[in-house]
What does this fold into?
Amino acid sequence: MHILLMLASHPLYRRYVPDLGLGYLAACLMKEGHTVRLCIRPKECAPPALMELVRSERFDLYGIKSASSALGTAREITKAIRAIDHGAIIVMGGPHPSSDPDSVFRVIPEINYAFSGEAEIGLVNLAARLSSGPLDERELDQIPGLIWRKGGETTVNEQKRVMDLDSLPFPAWDLMEPRKFPCTPFNFYSRRYPIAPLVLTRGCPGRCTFCAAGLINGRPIRSRSADNALEEIRLLTSKYGVREIQFYDSNCAHPSGSLRELCERIIAEDVDITWCAPNGIRIDSIDEEYVRLMRRSGCFQVNVGIESGSPRILKEIRKQITPELVREKVGILRKGGIEVIGFFMLGFPGETAAEVRHTVSFARSLPLTGASFAILTPLPGTELYRRVLSMRVMDIETFGSLDFINYRNDLSEVPYDRLRKIQKRAYIRFHLRPRVARYILRNFNSGRKILSMMYKFYLAVLRKGSHGTAEDGERKMETGCGRR
It folds into this structure.
């Protein structure tokens, strides 16, 4: 089959990085003899460009990856395909169908199928069966993770995850070469270019009330071997010139993972890379010896999910950490020479104004080199979502507001407008201190990154209102990139 895999981008915050999920799917499909094309950059998937592509190169199967906040874009993509290829087979995957499968056909009725959770097994299975012609209910019922219509009702098949991650082919890097992407990675923190994302583990055993990570990759931790990860790193450095790795795991430092051994191998074999963990690590995963090893292997920065400075809130959200532990572990990381970005959220249910202010003060009291102050958003599939939004009939516009930018949070004792002012002031008061500004300036090693950072600052602090476009930001992101 000839297959097109696409990424539905958030209308405001658009990412310009290789997509590991689609890269793995493409590699698995290609391994079975299918031809695959990836459409990752926002402009490539915009209706005019997409319609031209579909006209010139008809595909047998279309796959769209979408978060809940990008459903509007996913719907536009679907309509653009249908306008040209009326009989197209369109499949959706990604965070939204994994976290809220029952809403998929209601919000985007034009799609044929969707997948919940990891889709390497299920999508390959579906493509193989479709190659032989239309499918009956018996065949559909046997495809792991498939979301499909059965007698007018939505049916969600049981998921089947890849347990041996070493058995997966490496992502299809030839279809998303790292050096063809700008040096504006997951966040604007980086040291060298080209940059490639990597995952060591899948799964998250945490039970945080605001997070849905376990719905996509499950609770148990599965880890690649250090041998397998190092082989991919060597491929990236030798074939694609990659000089920096960014780990996208929920917690690449998990004790049952292979990061410790990988660090030892990088040091012993003198692999010339820098690396960071922008998606975050669990702060209770590290100790002084581990941090020294990470630093020696090229780690320069990690993000950590702290969320709140209030012991009561941390207990309520089941974060399983304390402010005292946070202070201790951040100190260990900083003593070890690793920069630390803290993730914080404001507006938890029942949170008082004093607790919100304390979180900001707590953040400023830590030796962090950067911080993110998000207004809490109930993401589909989370316990928080079930508590506050499960009784609402969600449409695409409402789902689109669940993006940490547009959601009007009235869950705490602090009114939203007041919460937004606290958030803006927190960003300014935290980052304009000389100590913190010095670390930020270290990352201004290209004009594109400066523009990217300015645009993110605009979204978080300066932007007024709840709607807008990202055309100016997108245009600026297309400018040149320096090297370091």
Observations:
- The longest helix spans residues 416-431.
- Confidence is low (pLDDT under 50) at residues 465-484.
- The chain is about 40% helix and 15% strand.
